[in-house]
């Protein structure tokens, strides 16, 4: 299971893919500094077994945070986007996205 994470600037045609599978030198915390400035994160949760809509709906229901999901693209239905906010807003968003996947993992074990 994994997430494909793309960083980009609104108006760009191509984001910068950052994944552990495709970037073996990525630090353990999964953060890579490129020196570039981004204003959104596009995440594909398809390989983790979730749709973008499921993640977006969960985060909105639990935290009131609005994210954007996308219609399926090339057979992949897990895309959702986070527009960057303050440190506090970003932390809340990440906390509830993690919670979504932790709960999903527990449900599959049961």
**CATH level-3 fold name:** Aspartate Aminotransferase, domain 1
**Structural classification:** alpha+beta
**Tally of DSSP helical segments:** 2
H-E string: EEEHEEH
Strand order of the largest sheet: 2-1-3-5-4
Give the rounded overall mean pLDDT.
76
Shape: globular
How would you describe what is shown here?
The chain has 110 residues and is α+β, with helices and mostly antiparallel strands. The chain has a single domain, classed as Aspartate Aminotransferase, domain 1, CATH 3.90.1150. 32% of the residues lie in helices and 18% in strands. The chain is built from 2 helices and 5 strands; from the N terminus they run βββαββα. Helix 1 packs across helix 2. The protein starts with a strand and ends with a helix.
Question: Quick recap of the structure?
Answer:
The protein is α+β, with helices and mostly antiparallel strands and 110 residues long. It has helices at 52-63, 87-109, and strands at residues 4-8, 16-18, 40-44, 68-69, 79-83. The chain has a single domain (4-109), classed as Alpha-Beta Complex (Aspartate Aminotransferase, domain 1), CATH 3.90.1150.
Secondary structure blueprint with pairings:
Layout: E1 4-8, E2 16-18, E3 40-44, H1 52-63, E4 68-69, E5 79-83, H2 87-109
Antiparallel strand pairs: 1-2, 1-3, 3-5, 4-5
Helix pairs in contact: 1-2
Summary tags:
single chain, 110 residues, alpha+beta, 2 helices, globular
């Amino acid at each position: 299971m994994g997430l494909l994470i793309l960083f980009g600037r609104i108006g760009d045609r191509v984001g910068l893919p950052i994944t552990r599978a495709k970037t073996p030198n990525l630090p353990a915390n999964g953060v890579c500094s490129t020196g570039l400035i981004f204003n959104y994160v596009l995440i594909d949760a398809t390989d983790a077994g979730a749709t973008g809509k499921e993640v977006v709906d969960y985060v909105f229901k639990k935290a009131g945070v609005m994210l954007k999901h996308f219609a399926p693209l090339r057979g992949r239905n897990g895309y959702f986007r986070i527009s960057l906010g303050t440190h506090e807003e970003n932390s809340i968003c990440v906390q509830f996205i993690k919670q979504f996947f932790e709960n999903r993992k527990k449900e599959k074990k049961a």
